[in-house]
Amino acid sequence: MATDTPIRIGVMGCAEIARKVSRAIHLAPNATIAAVASRSLEKAKSFVTSNGYPESTKIHGSYESILEDPEVDALYVPLPTSLHVEWAIRAAEKGKHILLEKPVAMNVAEFDKIVAACEANGVQIMDGTMWVHNPRTAKLKEFLSDSDRFGQLKTVQSCFSFAGDEDFLKNDIRVKPGLDGLGALGDAGWYAIRATLLANNFELPNTVTAFPGAVLNEAGVILSCGASLTWEDGRTATIYCSFLANLTMEITAIGTNGTLRVHDFIIPFQETQASFTTSTEAWFNELVTAWVNPPSEHTVKTELPQEACMVREFARLVGEIKNKGAKPDGFWPSISRKTQLVVDAVKESVDKNYEQISLSGR
């Protein structure tokens, strides 16, 4: 039986992240880059040249033009967050499947409009959170759901920080209120929140409270903040995100029987393999001078980089819809929505002088 033809993906916008995802589309066995759009033809042309796109790539000098392209099945959208609601809805209305950069929207009300358009037009939407597609992540989930080795989850701590230089803090779109107004919370915090939700089986917390001491720039965009999350049964979590602290990306999940630690969960130290440590029933020796059952390290190899695994999964879902009449997979928009809800709650807490925000019924 002949394999299905690759899913033809258009890249809508020439953001820096689009370089990495373009490479991923090249590497994914079931996807191909069909077209690129920028608001200027020149920019699109130079992007195609500098990123070694195939010669067959169509070049569009406007976003409208790529939406009309019948040879594009799906769009990767790395536009600034404030533009997502308009262009994702327009893409869905043209029947284009959407791989949408995170954060998915400025708030959950905007994202709900995007999802409604996707549902009405039968298109798949998935956000661009790459690390969840790394083969390591499946192993993390396996350990977390092992009632013998891990037990019941008690708490999760997750953080993502990097120190932006002067130019970044002044000029990057992630510090501009009209472009990516969620700042470090939408960019780095998104990952820490997703990790926390993943460890909690995507069960939303009851309450979210930002820690006092958030740092905002002159335009009111968050450069650094933290928050605590609580669940009804006593589970807790803390998240921290910052553009002002050294590069760190950690998950620590502690259960009744075991502990999971990941030191590079967003971008692994190496592209071809990723590690994590687990410990189960750790204790002290008799003199309490050393550990019995110290943590052990596990390494997961991957043939494809995690962003190519993401594109492969997205293209697989699109192929099922296109070739077999399948329905879009609702899991992906559901976890995007939950992540966005918690982002919104942290921001609301910061805006309301660190008040506790309830998520019940949202």
TrEMBL record:
One of its GO terms (molecular function) is nucleotide binding. Residues 145-261 form the GFO/IDH/MocA-like oxidoreductase domain. InterPro entries: Gfo/Idh/MocA-like_OxRdtase_N, GFO_IDH_MocA-like_dom, NAD(P)-bd_dom_sf. SUPFAM superfamilies: Glyceraldehyde-3-phosphate dehydrogenase-like, C-terminal domain (SSF55347), NAD(P)-binding Rossmann-fold domains (SSF51735). Residues 7-126 form the Gfo/Idh/MocA-like oxidoreductase N-terminal domain. Transmembrane segments: none annotated. Belongs to the Gfo/Idh/MocA family. This is Uncharacterized protein. It comes from Brassica oleracea var. oleracea.
